[in-house]
C-alpha cells in the first residue's frame, strides 16, 4: 500500500454490496474506511485491514460532517465514496404507515443525501478523478406490487444521481448509480427486510400476497453472485479489469436480470409515447 493508494469510504459495510466492495478494494491494496451502525458487525473487515468507524446514515448532518472531517484529517484525501445503505419495506402502499414510509426514505434517500453532503467537500478537494457511487435497484425502473415504497426510494436515488453526475462533473467527480438485480446478499432474509405492521386481508390473495410469498422463497436463491458483482463494480470505478479503458457509466445495470427489466420498461414507455402522441391524445405532443 502506497501513500497515494485510493481511499474509499463505504457505508453499510456490514453486509451486501458494501461489505464485498470493501473486501475487493482491500485485496487491491486500497485504503478502506468501512462504516456500519455497529463496528462489532465489521470486525472481519478490520481484520482484513480496513479502518472501521461507527456511522448511522440517518444521523443528523453535523454528526456525519464530523466523521467526514475526521477521515479527511487522517488520510488527507478521499477518492471514492460509496453510499450502500438501504433496505426493502414490503407491503402494499395502502398498508404501510406514514412512519414506515418516512423511515424507508430516511435511510434509502435522505441518508444517501446527507452522507454525500458531508463528504463532498473532501471529494472536491482531492486532486485527480474521484467517484461517488449510489445504489438504485432494478426497482428504479419498475414499481412492483408489494414494494412500491422501496421502488420509490430507488427511483429517487437514480434521479438524484443523474443530477449529481452533471453537477459534480466540473470537479472531476464521476457519479454513477448501481442498479442491481437479484443478488445473494442477505437483503431478503428475515433480519434485513421490513414488512408493514399492517396486513390487510384484502391483499392476501392479490399480487401483493403473492410477492410476499415469493420474496420468502427467493432468499439466498438469487442468481447474482455478490463477490463477482463487486469485483466488476471495483473494476468499473477504477477503470481496470473488465472496465479497463472504459468510462464510468451514468447507470450500472448489474446482474443478468437487470437489463431485461430495463428493456421491457423502455419498450413499454415507447409504446406509451406512441399511443399518447399519435392515437389517443394528439395534443399531448405539442408542435414547435
Automatic annotation (TrEMBL):
SUPFAM superfamilies: NAD(P)-binding Rossmann-fold domains
InterPro entries in UniProt: DHB_DH, NAD(P)-bd_dom_sf, SDR_fam, SDR_oxidoreductase
Superkingdom of origin organism: Eukaryota
Protein's name in the database: NAD(P)-binding protein
BP terms from Gene Ontology: siderophore biosynthetic process
Assigned protein family: Belongs to the short-chain dehydrogenases/reductases (SDR) family.
Provenance organism: Polyplosphaeria fusca
Keywords: Oxidoreductase
Record-level Gene Ontology MF annotations: 2,3-dihydro-2,3-dihydroxybenzoate dehydrogenase activity
